[in-house]
Amino acid sequence: MDALARQAISIDVGNRLRQLRESRKISMRTLATMSGLSANALSMIERGKTSPSVSTLYRIADALSVPVTDFFGPDETRKKVVFLKADERTRLSFLRGLWEGLGGEQFAGRAMPFMLTLESGASSGPNSMLHSGHEFVFCLRGQLEYQVEGQVYHLATGDSLLFAAQLKHRWRNPGGTVTNVLIIISDYADGDQPHPHLEKIES
Questions:
Q1: Which run of H or E residues covers position 114?
Q2: CATH architecture of 77-198
Q3: Model pTM?
Q4: Where are the domains of the chain?
Q5: Do β-strands 129-131 and 134-141 pair in parallel, antiparallel, or remain unpaired?
Q6: Rounded alpha-carbon distances, angstroms, from residue 152 to 104, 149, 155, 161
Q7: CB burial class (10 A; 0-12, 13-18, 19+) of residue 193?
Q8: Which residues of 53-72 are buried (b: 16+ CB within 10 A; e: fewer)?
Q9: Do 142 and 179 form a contact (C-beta atoms < 8 A)?
Q10: What are phi and psi of 177, to 5 degrees?
Q11: Residue 201's pLDDT is what?
């Protein structure tokens, strides 16, 4: 990861998961049942022994009934204008990748931008994702494979993809170099953060 990413504010996913779970008075066993994940897998995440995939984070967020951006930190007062310096981004690490918030977690409007940095072989995880709103994807560097409802789209530098996010989708970096991707989720209903729903069967 580059120097800028190292300077950004890192999120302790395990600690944040524990905060979200305990604030809702949900036991580890109950969350396991609700999310379809094993209690052991959740315990490993909470103890910082493993990094969850993006699709796993979506699955946990779905079970907790929170937007996935809640993993980036506590709820704050939403703003109509969000100015974010490059070194003020919050970042969340996952296997072979980095997920950076670009202010959507603070914004009062209906847009959620974020940046993905994907090493070779990085993927969203074993499950497809779906949520409300629309998803715009712009490949800034490298290669990206996006699968939407079984249709595979191959993006190279400068290519873009726009689709209704309630369609099942997943992504991966099939190339041998680092990929940088800008993703914007938008146009979800007022009061409805782009709420995640995951396929319950791995595909």
A1: strand 111-118
A2: Sandwich (2.60)
A3: 0.76
A4: 12-71, 77-198
A5: unpaired
A6: 27, 8, 10, 11
A7: buried
A8: bbbbbbbbbbbbebbbbbbb
A9: yes
A10: -125, 170
A11: 31
